[in-house]
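From the methods appendix. Each design record in this collection lists the tokenized structure first, followed by the designed amino acid sequence. Records were kept in a plain field format so they could be parsed without special tools. The example shown here is representative of the layout used throughout.

RECORD:
FOLD TOKENS (273 positions):
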């Protein structure tokens, strides 16, 4: 009897230990994927630039260029008269959401042109999806209807000539170019040379501009040293050249070239000549 009792106790203890071991195996923490795999995202639009060819089934008004560029997590461009910029997010299955857009506030031309601009901005804000294919970007609304069609925009700097309209003031803002008969220019030649006038003195440089990455680099080779006829012109020239030196990237619209500094702020904004 005593032997049987001891055997029963030993068997009970073994079963208990086996149960505890089984419970420990079942409650082992699951293996989690690396954080990088959870946060990795891709973008089909980032780094691309487009020009409007159709808005709500209608071609753009003659003499207007409406553009859309994707840089980082922001969009920017011209709406035919004013420029705009703001945030966007690209989601799975070609979904897009465009946030609050900031715009300039100029009045341009006849009412039809301003109405086109209003409709274009409204279309951007209402964009819910997009498709890419055959050299076209198509925006769609929440109902799946096509609202705007774009073609790729040329981003080649070589062979273009520009007139500065504003430049960075070093505090994240812009200073307008004084209209006192002084034209600030930038001429990009086919052989990679940049030259122009800073308003009083001329300058020359060697440049590289990548249409794919929008990276911009230049090495100044010559800068004039004349004294400008007035302190205002002299101050403007210094501010323009200082802003030009900060440029590391660019965005080219049909009528506008914007150079950006390393923080993504506009360094110099030019208008096509």
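DESIGN:
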């Amino acid at each position: 009897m005593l032997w049987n009792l001891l055997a029963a106790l030993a068997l009970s203890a073994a079963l208990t230990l086996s149960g505890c071991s089984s419970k420990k195996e079942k409650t082992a923490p699951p293996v989690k994927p690396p954080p990088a795999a959870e946060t990795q995202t891709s973008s089909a639009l980032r780094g691309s630039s487009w020009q409007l060819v159709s808005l709500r089934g209608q071609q753009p008004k003659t003499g207007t260029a409406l553009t859309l560029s994707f840089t980082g997590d922001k969009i920017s461009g011209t709406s035919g008269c004013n420029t705009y910029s703001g945030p966007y997010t690209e989601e799975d299955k070609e979904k897009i959401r465009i946030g609050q857009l900031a715009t300039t506030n100029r009045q341009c031309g006849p009412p039809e042109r301003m109405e086109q601009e209003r409709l274009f901005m409204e279309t951007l804000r209402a964009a819910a999806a997009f498709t890419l294919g055959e050299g076209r970007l198509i925006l769609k609304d929440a109902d799946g209807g096509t609202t705007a069609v774009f073609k790729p925009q040329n981003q080649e700097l070589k062979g273009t000539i520009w007139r500065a309209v504003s430049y960075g003031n070093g505090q994240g803002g812009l200073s307008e170019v004084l209209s006192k008969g002084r034209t600030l220019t930038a001429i990009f030649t086919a052989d990679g040379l940049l030259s122009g006038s800073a308003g009083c003195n001329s300058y020359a440089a060697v440049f590289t501009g990548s249409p794919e990455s929008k990276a911009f680099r230049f090495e100044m080779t010559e800068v004039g040293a004349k004294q400008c006829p007035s302190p205002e012109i002299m101050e403007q020239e210094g501010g323009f050249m200082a802003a030009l030196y900060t440029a590391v990237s660019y965005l080219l619209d049909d009528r506008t070239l914007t150079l950006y500094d390393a923080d993504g702020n506009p360094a110099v904004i030019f208008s096509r000549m």
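APPENDIX NOTE: Helices lie at 2-26, 35-39, 111-125, 231-245.
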